[in-house]
Structure formats: structure tokens, C-alpha cells
Amino acid sequence: MEQLQQYVPVVILACIALLFAFGTLIVSVVLGKTGRLSKTKDSAYECGMNPVGEGSARMSVKFYLVAMLFILFDIEVIFMVPWAVVYRSMLAHPATTNTIFLSMLSFMGILVVGYVYALKKRAFDWKS
Asked: What is the pTM of this model?
């Protein structure tokens, strides 16, 4: 029972947050001005020009490919920094020195293969 009492402030905070969220919505509906809807007011406004075409343009697959490559090479850094920090302390244990070095070498080898594959598929060409 004592553990449940620790959650009382969290429950109170959640209730206050919900009351604030729904309260502001209700107050805005009650106090807000209701205007007449017209075609002019409901149309999209963009820099004083009339909207032409679809509202959302299709994105090129190249955009997503570049985003995935960025994530791939960003994760590479996330794995390499802790390895570099631990590597110096692992040099004190001769039995694990080769294991940790070879594991990073194999990781870098896989990344190089992926990089070469991306180069061959022309994934880094921005103009196509």
C-alpha cells in the first residue's frame, strides 16, 4: 500500500494536465467567435497566391534513401565511441584484446561493404 501512495502525485499531475487540456478546448469553444464559413475564408492561403495543384507533394524515394544512409552511418558512430572508450581498458587483458579489435574490424568491414554498395547504386548522387 505504501508503494501505491508514491504514485498519488503522478495521478494528481495527470488529472491536472487532462483538466487543463480539455478545459482550454471547452473555454475556446464557448468564448470563441463563430464566424460564417465562406469559400474564401476556407481556402488555403500561401504568400498571396492562389493554391494550385495537390496539397501534399510526393517525395522522391531518393530522400528516404539518403535518410536511411544517414541513420546507418550515425549508428556507426554510436557504436564506435563506446568501443573506443573501452578499448584502452581492454588492452590490460591480453586475452580479450584480439577479440574486441577483431569485432570492431568486422563491424567496420560490414560498413565498408554497405558504403561501396551505396556508391555502386549511386545513392549519393543528388542530381538524379
From this structure: 0.47
